Structure formats: C-alpha cells, structure tokens
Amino acid sequence: MSAVSPSSPVRRPPLPALTGLRTLLALNIVLFHFTPQHLHYLYPVIDNAYVFVGFFFLISGFVLTYNYADRALGLRNYNFYIARFARIYPTYLLTLLISLPMVGEEWHARSRAEFWQGMLLTPISMQGWIPSIATFWNTVGWTVSAEVALYLAFPFMLRAAARSRMWNWSAPRLILLGLTVWLVGLIPHSLYIVFNPDHLPLPINRFSYGIYLRALKFGPMSYLCIFLAGGILARVHFRLKLGSMQRLVLCVVALVSLGLFFQKAIPAGVPYVLIHGCILLPLFSMLTLGLAGPNPVAAVFSWKPLVKLGEATFALYLLHFNVFVMIHAYHLPERLHVAQWDPWISYVFLLVLAYAVMNLFEKPMRQLILGRMLPRPQAAMASAKAVEPQLV
Predict the structure, then answer these.
(1) Cα radius of gyration rounded to whole Å, the chain
(2) Cys-Cys link to 342, which of 41, 73, 89, 333 (CB 3.0-4.6 A)?
C-alpha cells in the first residue's frame, strides 16, 4: 500500500471488536482501582489490570495508523490536531471541573511548589512530565499527558515512515521491527530492575513509591515504543491479509496465553516493573490483529452492548476514579439507602454517567469545535470517522 494522499480519503471498515475490547479493558481498570469482593478466579486479572493501560496505547497507535495510512504524506498537522483536541479535551476539562473538590485534598497533601505546578500543568495536560505531580487532581489524568505527546508526534512519525523503505516492507520484516521496538521499550524498565535507583525494598509492587519508578509508570516517553508498535502492527495488518481462521487462531492463542500468564507467571515472580512496561505486548498485538477482522471470537467482542459501552470508555476512564471517591466521601450510598448493593450500584452509576457525558457533552462539543475550527468538508470527515482513534 503506497503512502498516497487522495482527495477523497479511504473510509476504513469499522473495527467493532476492538471497541468491545476497550470496554472490557476499561472495566478491568475500574475494578483494579476499586476491587469488589467475591470475584475469586478473576482476581489474577483484576489485580494486574494496570497493564491494560499499555494495551490502550498499542490500540491507539494501531487505530491511528489504520485510519490515516492512506493519506500519510498529505495529512495536515492543523486538521489532525484540531480533530484530536475536539476528541479529548472537552471531556478531560469536564472531569477536572467535576473533580474540583479534590483540589482541596491536593492542597493539604502536597508542598506549595508541587500544588501550584499541578494547578498550572494539569489543565493543559502536561502534569505527566513531572513524576511527583503526575496524578495531581485527577489520578488517571496522566494518561492524557502521554496521549497528547504522542498525538503531537504522530503526523511527523507517520510521514517519516511513509517516506522510508519500511513503509513497503514485507510482513515478516515488519513483525521483526515491531519486536525490536518492543524490546527497546523495555530497556529502561530492565535497567531500573538492575540498578533500583530509588533504593526501594524488594519486591517492588503497585504500592512502591519512587521518583524514577513514577517516571517509568506515568511518563509519556515510557509509552512511545508501545505506541510505535501499534503503528507497525497496523502496517502488518495491511500486508498480511489474514483470513477468518488465521485470525481465530491468533485470538485463541493470545487469550489462552494471557490467561496462563495472569494465573501462573505473575505469581511465579515476573517483576512488576516489566509487567508495567508491557512485557505482554506481543500477546496484546496478536489479540489486536486477530480482532481486526471477522472471526468467531471477534463476533463475541462485537456484541452490540459491548460496542455501545466502548464508545464511552474515554469518559468512563477519566471519570471513574474521582467520581467513585467522591461518591463514598459524601456517603451517597448510605444517604440513598442503597449501601447493601454497593459497590455494584456505584459501578452502574459510573457507566450511566459516562454514557451520558459521551452523548450529551462529548459528542456535541466535538461537533461544535470541528464546525468552528475546520473547513466544512474536513469537519464533516473528522466527526464521522469510521473508527475513533482514542486511548480509552
């Protein structure tokens, strides 16, 4: 496939199975942060669901390249940036406004310098670049810092790739390149394990705290190689032309291998830092490639309720942490006499709220911004994308 810039860009077929996958990943992250009782066999996955954040960056790189590969050399930075701004910033800003009560907690928990750094950088989604304030105001908002950085770089990376020989490489060479990028991305995490620059007691886990560890966990550069691997995977998708049975095999092998990893490998002592660094990226890539075309597993992930909820996962991800905390800080389940159904009723509320925000705020604001800031044909095209390239 050549890197052309047609006057009428190709409208790619939608990828509903990947949207359904996003739903399941986002729900696992919600349960990771606020874990209910009595889920038994699901705990090996839920307790390690932080790894799915890296999966989202892989999907984001894949879907962006999937959508824009046909106009790599003609992609205008301004149009791309406005489309991405309209997609993520209104909801991001809304979650900060909803989370204003959390600012008081930040004032008491942080030094004055950190507080004012957070107040300045968080509204412009730059807090992720400073490890000590990466989780300021909205604990999960650091992912938007990484997302913005990668979005800013994407048009330049796409054009550079399209002008290189790599663009027309065979699928085996692209797979080798993707594996190389993955291994390069694991170098900082491996060095951290060897040198332990924060001098943390072992074993390091999700509750360990160190500036260098936070830089690995929350810094935008930690996700660059994962994002690049997603773009390379999209080129593999175009080159391979897999059939239904081949995609089915990829899905089954990936899902079974992931299940064994969560059940067996993590308890056996795979380092937390490597897991957080997306050591599972090859299996995530196999599953993504398998779900990017028709097969029986993709049909399950394309179940309409999953796909509908998947459209709201960006709002769900940004809202869930602070809203859940505030629900319980104000004792709303007790006041409404529904505490016996908590936390499940809180989860349902988060889903309803996210879906409402997506339909009543996110979509109208996106259309308003695109209509005001892009010429009409480009605005219509940006607002009617077959697949929305978003993190979550």
Answers:
(1) 21
(2) 333
Helix axes 51-68, 281-291, angle to 10 degrees: 40
Q: What is the pLDDT along the chain (392 residues), one digit of tens a residue?
A: 455 544 456 678 899 999 999 999 999 999 999 999 989 889 999 999 999 999 999 999 999 999 999 888 999 999 999 999 999 999 999 999 999 999 999 999 999 999 999 999 999 999 999 999 999 999 999 999 999 999 999 999 999 999 999 999 999 999 999 999 999 999 999 999 999 999 999 999 999 999 999 999 999 999 999 999 999 999 999 999 899 999 999 999 999 999 999 999 999 999 999 999 999 999 999 999 999 999 999 999 999 999 999 999 999 999 999 999 999 999 999 999 999 999 999 999 999 999 999 999 999 999 999 999 987 655 545 554 534 445 44
**By the 8 A CB rule, do 167 and 3 touch?**
yes
Of 147, 91, 143, the closest CA to residue 358 belongs to 91
Question: DSSP secondary-structure letter at 361?
Answer: I
| Both structure tokens of 373 | 């800031």
48 token code pair:
């390690």
**Cβ-based neighbour number of residue 124 at 10 Å:** 10
Query: Token pair for residue 362?
Result: 């996110």
Q: Which amino acid is at 206?
A: R
Sign of the CA dihedral 371, 372, 377, 379? negative
* Measured CA angle at 298 (ends 253, 303), to 5 deg: 135
CA neighbor of 178 nearest in space, from 250, 286, 256: 286
- What gap in Å lies between CA 63 and CA 278, rounded to an integer? 18
C-beta atoms surrounding 290 within 10 Å: 24
Alpha helices in 261-335 (DSSP H): 272-276, 281-291, 296-301, 304-310, 313-329, 332-335
Q: Residue 301 corresponds to which tokens in the numbers above?
A: 């992930």
Are the CB atoms for 343 and 331 separated by under 8 Å? no
Name residues whose C-beta falls within 8 Å of residue 94's C-beta, 6 or more positions apart in sequence.
357, 361
Q: Is the dihedral of CA 54, 60, 66, 70 positive or negative?
A: negative
Decide if 97 contacts 189 (C-beta within 8 A).
Answer: no
* 203 preceded by a cis bond (ω within 30 of 0): yes
